[in-house]
Amino acid sequence: MDLSATAEKNLKSRVNHVATVAAAYADEVDRDSRFPKEAVDAMKAERLLGVMISEELGGEGLSISEIAELCSTLGQACASSAMIFAMHQIKTSSLVTHGNDADWHRNFMRRVAAEQLLLGSATTEAGIGGNLRNSICAIDVKDGRCFLEKDATVISYGVESDAILITSRSHKDAASSDQVMTVFLKDQYTIDKTHVWDTLGMRGTCSDGFMFRGEAPAEQILPHPFAEIAAQSMLATAHLLWSSVWYGIALDAFIRAQNFVRAAARKAPGTQPPGLVQLAELSSQLQTVRSNIVGGLRSYEDACMDQDRLSSMGFAVAMNNVKIASSEMILPIINQAMRICGIMGYKNGTPYSLGRHLRDAHSAQLMISNDRILGNTSNMLLVHKQETSLLG
């Protein structure tokens, strides 16, 4: 076995261990709307929080496709744990892509990898209607230090984060779209809860709202405008890794339906079990979702070789379409899986229970709102020519 195959096998073993831990607590995390501490502790123990960071800085330099596979595996076990892992990696992508030329951020990445720091995100704000590309608050820089106060309507796992990457206007006179992103370490800010996360699904992400107040050295402001960070790393990575989590949820729903049909077949050998044809249809739909994500991952990795393409409207449209298609398709898949499993899928506490899957999957169309994405995409399509070649 060559070194790459050994490393791949080791990575798979590590994430499978985390998934086993996450699955053991998934129902409890959902029921109690609590942070999946056991799963995140396992991620840290298996050193998964630094896998995107380059080997030079102490990480493993995994590709977006490799990390998407980890998200999918975790998504099959516990959607909240998988989403926390995905959101951490999305924040890491901003550092890797846009902080590598700044000494402070390079040293911070070393810390993330060495200490397995969990990164939170504060991009939403009261008064902007969920539009992360606008801010009301502004960072204030004085004598080499920066000060920020933000009414953040959502900071996922904010209490548990070791650092928060937060957006704001670049200065008090800046336009709402003239934004920067700043890293604040846990001992550099306070957060006072303003909203409680009591939701239909994704309950373990603990995405409470907070009033954030922070003070830090100004060098912790990322050296690139947030418009560039959003376009070139954050949004594309979010669409792809979120989609991978949702695929994992749908895949586990399919596996439960498959197990149900197999159990029925064993009870009546020689006959076609109910739900078999519907299961075949689900397999086809699931493959379509997977192909959509894999195609998006390839497009992103190709675009990373060409900065102009990475910032192009065509690329943004393609990434938006990945998210729309993934989030719209998983709900019908899980719903059909529940129909196959019947009352055993509807009930909690059975090997075929799908209530948590269905509730968690409803978040997909709301993170970032599909209506907002479609509105942005429609405007871009006025000036962008749609790709027509099957070969890309």
TrEMBL record:
<comment type="similarity">
    <text>Belongs to the acyl-CoA dehydrogenase family.</text>
</comment>
<dbReference type="Pfam" id="PF00441">
    <property type="entry name" value="Acyl-CoA_dh_1"/>
</dbReference>
<keyword id="KW-0274">FAD</keyword>
<dbReference type="GO" id="GO:0003995">
    <property type="term" value="F:acyl-CoA dehydrogenase activity"/>
</dbReference>
<dbReference type="InterPro" id="IPR037069">
    <property type="entry name" value="AcylCoA_DH/ox_N_sf"/>
</dbReference>
<feature type="domain" description="Acyl-CoA dehydrogenase/oxidase N-terminal">
    <location>
        <begin position="18"/>
        <end position="102"/>
    </location>
</feature>
<protein>
    <submittedName>
        <fullName>Acyl-CoA dehydrogenase</fullName>
    </submittedName>
</protein>
<feature type="domain" description="Acyl-CoA dehydrogenase/oxidase C-terminal">
    <location>
        <begin position="233"/>
        <end position="366"/>
    </location>
</feature>
<dbReference type="InterPro" id="IPR009100">
    <property type="entry name" value="AcylCoA_DH/oxidase_NM_dom_sf"/>
</dbReference>
<keyword id="KW-0285">Flavoprotein</keyword>
<dbReference type="InterPro" id="IPR036250">
    <property type="entry name" value="AcylCo_DH-like_C"/>
</dbReference>
<dbReference type="GO" id="GO:0050660">
    <property type="term" value="F:flavin adenine dinucleotide binding"/>
</dbReference>
<dbReference type="Pfam" id="PF02771">
    <property type="entry name" value="Acyl-CoA_dh_N"/>
</dbReference>
<dbReference type="InterPro" id="IPR009075">
    <property type="entry name" value="AcylCo_DH/oxidase_C"/>
</dbReference>
<dbReference type="InterPro" id="IPR013786">
    <property type="entry name" value="AcylCoA_DH/ox_N"/>
</dbReference>
